[in-house]
């Protein structure tokens, strides 16, 4: 048992966010941006959730590893997360893959993205490392996970979701004993192991890990010297520790942050178009599953200087209205209707147009008389006057990216091809 007296453990921790993934399942939404930089919730980016959780948990040293199509992600972090101050023992390091170890070597995996920056991490001298995925939507107090890690004497603590067993086939899954010690770690098993006492449920990895820093460094160096390793936490580092050390599962229910009216422990991997669409629309419910209005656990992001949203015209058939919708700054709804939709910054809607179940990214312009339903509009799209989407599935699939559940993604290139 290690000493838990004194200050919060988060003050001795560094959060390291892995934000370099391709995000290819979001198709054209990640053509020009990394998945963590994709917009979410009307004002935020996906990465803001992991970073906000770290700040709200009391962690003041943060590193973010970037790689693929990182420009918009880096620009966002420079604008939104530039309030950290070295004189307060705070730091915020953006760590692009820069061939620091070898002239030909980018980040070869999640573990390698930490290994290549050991010297930078060591300069901050954190006692604990909290390794985070930068592409999930949730609210969590990492201090609770740090405390379990120290109390248990674990070599690694793995954040886990309790999910129906056969829904865990796409995750790394823990086999645990009755004390939640991990006895096996299996990547994407066809037949996931159940939880003791709950055979129909499984423990799925959230991609969140807590280590003592020196132990992590030793493991990364060992892994880097192994020519057969895939340089991955889930595929290599964690299974090795499970076999040769002590790995413990931390259940999300223990540290999930819920406002008084939130009815579930909300965690979403918004890695597909349908999942992204549905998670955004979750926010339009009267009592949303994820409360972005919780001032005790704010989601920090870039504060854009812009005019308030505006609704104009008040005559029959031409009334600016929004129902069950989130409308951001600098939007103008001019004689138009938004229903169960999210309008991000700077969206303009022309008279007699309507959107329903729509996620409209920044600075889109919707022409007069356009009727859009079940759509995601990429940023900067200009919808022609009179365009109808969501009524004819066959026609929609010919013109746009249509998902299995009937969601149409519309980009500037797709509109340009309409002629």
TrEMBL record:
<dbReference type="InterPro" id="IPR011004">
    <property type="entry name" value="Trimer_LpxA-like_sf"/>
</dbReference>
<feature type="site" description="Could play a key role in the communication between the regulatory and the substrate sites">
    <location>
        <position position="106"/>
    </location>
</feature>
<dbReference type="InterPro" id="IPR005836">
    <property type="entry name" value="ADP_Glu_pyroP_CS"/>
</dbReference>
<feature type="binding site">
    <location>
        <begin position="187"/>
        <end position="188"/>
    </location>
    <ligand>
        <name>alpha-D-glucose 1-phosphate</name>
    </ligand>
</feature>
<dbReference type="GO" id="GO:0005978">
    <property type="term" value="P:glycogen biosynthetic process"/>
</dbReference>
<dbReference type="InterPro" id="IPR011831">
    <property type="entry name" value="ADP-Glc_PPase"/>
</dbReference>
<comment type="subunit">
    <text>Homotetramer.</text>
</comment>
<comment type="pathway">
    <text>Glycan biosynthesis; glycogen biosynthesis.</text>
</comment>
<feature type="domain" description="Glucose-1-phosphate adenylyltransferase/Bifunctional protein GlmU-like C-terminal hexapeptide">
    <location>
        <begin position="307"/>
        <end position="410"/>
    </location>
</feature>
<comment type="similarity">
    <text>Belongs to the bacterial/plant glucose-1-phosphate adenylyltransferase family.</text>
</comment>
<keyword id="KW-0547">Nucleotide-binding</keyword>
<dbReference type="InterPro" id="IPR023049">
    <property type="entry name" value="GlgC_bac"/>
</dbReference>
<keyword id="KW-0320">Glycogen biosynthesis</keyword>
<dbReference type="InterPro" id="IPR029044">
    <property type="entry name" value="Nucleotide-diphossugar_trans"/>
</dbReference>
<feature type="binding site">
    <location>
        <position position="172"/>
    </location>
    <ligand>
        <name>alpha-D-glucose 1-phosphate</name>
    </ligand>
</feature>
<dbReference type="GO" id="GO:0008878">
    <property type="term" value="F:glucose-1-phosphate adenylyltransferase activity"/>
</dbReference>
<dbReference type="InterPro" id="IPR056818">
    <property type="entry name" value="GlmU/GlgC-like_hexapep"/>
</dbReference>
<feature type="site" description="Could play a key role in the communication between the regulatory and the substrate sites">
    <location>
        <position position="67"/>
    </location>
</feature>
<keyword id="KW-0808">Transferase</keyword>
<keyword id="KW-0067">ATP-binding</keyword>
<dbReference type="Pfam" id="PF00483">
    <property type="entry name" value="NTP_transferase"/>
</dbReference>
<feature type="binding site">
    <location>
        <position position="205"/>
    </location>
    <ligand>
        <name>alpha-D-glucose 1-phosphate</name>
    </ligand>
</feature>
<keyword id="KW-0548">Nucleotidyltransferase</keyword>
<dbReference type="GO" id="GO:0005524">
    <property type="term" value="F:ATP binding"/>
</dbReference>
<feature type="binding site">
    <location>
        <position position="107"/>
    </location>
    <ligand>
        <name>alpha-D-glucose 1-phosphate</name>
    </ligand>
</feature>
<keyword id="KW-0119">Carbohydrate metabolism</keyword>
<dbReference type="Pfam" id="PF24894">
    <property type="entry name" value="Hexapep_GlmU"/>
</dbReference>
<feature type="domain" description="Nucleotidyl transferase">
    <location>
        <begin position="16"/>
        <end position="284"/>
    </location>
</feature>
<comment type="function">
    <text>Involved in the biosynthesis of ADP-glucose, a building block required for the elongation reactions to produce glycogen. Catalyzes the reaction between ATP and alpha-D-glucose 1-phosphate (G1P) to produce pyrophosphate and ADP-Glc.</text>
</comment>
<dbReference type="InterPro" id="IPR005835">
    <property type="entry name" value="NTP_transferase_dom"/>
</dbReference>
<keyword id="KW-0321">Glycogen metabolism</keyword>
<protein>
    <recommendedName>
        <fullName>Glucose-1-phosphate adenylyltransferase</fullName>
        <ecNumber>2.7.7.27</ecNumber>
    </recommendedName>
</protein>
């Amino acid at each position: 048992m290690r000493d838990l007296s004194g200050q919060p453990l988060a003050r001795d921790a560094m959060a390291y966010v892995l934000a370099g993934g391709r995000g290819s399942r979001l198709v054209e939404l990640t053509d020009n941006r990394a998945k963590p930089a994709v917009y979410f919730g009307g004002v935020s980016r996906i990465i803001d959730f992991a970073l906000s959780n770290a700040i709200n948990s009391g962690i003041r040293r943060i590193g973010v590893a970037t790689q693929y199509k990182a420009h918009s992600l880096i620009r966002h972090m420079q604008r939104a997360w530039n309030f950290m101050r070295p004189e307060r023992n705070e730091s915020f390091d953006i760590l692009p893959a820069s061939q620091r170890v070898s002239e030909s070597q980018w980040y070869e995996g999640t573990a390698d993205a930490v290994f290549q920056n050991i010297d930078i991490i060591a300069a901050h001298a954190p006692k604990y490392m909290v390794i985070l995925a930068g592409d999930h939507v949730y609210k969590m107090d990492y201090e609770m996970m740090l405390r379990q890690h120290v109390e248990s004497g674990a070599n690694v603590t793995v954040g886990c979701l309790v999910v129906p067993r056969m829904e865990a086939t796409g995750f790394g899954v823990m086999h645990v004993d009755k004390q939640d010690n991990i006895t096996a770690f299996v990547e994407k098993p066809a037949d996931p192991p159940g939880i003791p006492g709950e055979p129909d449920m499984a423990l799925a990895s959230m991609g969140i890990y807590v280590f003592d820093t020196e132990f992590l460094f030793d493991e990364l160096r060992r892994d880097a010297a192994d020519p057969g390793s895939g340089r991955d936490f889930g595929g290599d580092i964690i299974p090795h520790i499970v076999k040769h050390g002590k790995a413990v599962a931390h259940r999300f229910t223990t540290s999930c942050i819920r406002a008084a009216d939130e009815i579930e422990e909300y965690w979403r991997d918004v890695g597909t178009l349908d999942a992204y669409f549905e998670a955004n629309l979750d926010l339009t419910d009267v009592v949303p599953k994820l409360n972005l209005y919780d001032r005790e656990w704010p989601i920090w992001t870039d504060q854009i200087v812009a005019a308030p949203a505006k609704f104009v015209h008040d005559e029959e058939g031409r009334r600016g209205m929004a129902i069950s919708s989130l409308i951001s700054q600098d939007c103008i709804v001019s004689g138009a209707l938004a229903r169960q939709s999210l309008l991000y910054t700077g969206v303009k809607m022309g008279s007699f147009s309507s959107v329903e179940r729509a996620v409209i990214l920044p600075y889109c312009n919707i022409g007069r008389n356009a009727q859009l339903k079940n759509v995601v509009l990429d940023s900067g799209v200009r919808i022609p006057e009179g365009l109808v989407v969501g009524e004819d599935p066959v026609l929609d699939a010919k013109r746009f990216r249509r998902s299995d559940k009937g969601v149409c993604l519309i980009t500037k290139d797709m509109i340009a091809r309409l002629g």
